[in-house]
Amino acid sequence: MGFARFFTLMEAPLQQPTTLNDALEELPEEPADEEGLRDRILEAHRILMHMNEHNREQFQPLVEMLESQDATTHN
């Protein structure tokens, strides 16, 4: 999806798993309704589309469908 252009991808963590696990904390659940979830998915796919041409081609139909659903919901 083009993440290598923006991030350094590694096979193993930089820290030992126990050190890494000690630094992690549980995030609280965030309730999401259907509209909120659709908005997040739409935003994520818009971002992915801007990463490269392949993503744009792959995700354009989904983004257009979600945008049309969003337009119908708000009318």
Helix content: 55-70%
Q: Structural class of the secondary structure composition? A: mainly alpha
Alpha carbon gap, first and last residue: 34 Å
Quick one: overall form?
flat
Largest sheet: none
List SSEs in N-to-C order.
Answer: HHH
Number of helices: 3
Cα-based radius of gyration, to the nearest Å = 17 Å
Q: Overall mean pLDDT score?
A: 86
Report the portion of residues in β strands. under 5%
How many runs of DSSP E, i.e. beta strands?
0
Poorly predicted runs: none
Provide an overview of this structure.
The protein is mainly α and 75 residues long. It has a domain at 33-75. Helix content is 59%, strand content 0%. It has helices at 17-23, 34-49, 53-73. α2 packs antiparallel against α3. The longest helix is centred in the C-terminal third of the chain and has 21 residues, at 53-73. It is flat, with a radius of gyration of 17 Å. The two termini are 34 Å apart. The model has no long low-confidence stretch (mean pLDDT 86).
What is the element layout, followed by pairings?
Blueprint: H1 17-23, H2 34-49, H3 53-73
Short account of what is shown:
The chain is 59% helix and 0% strand. The protein is mostly helical and 75 residues long.
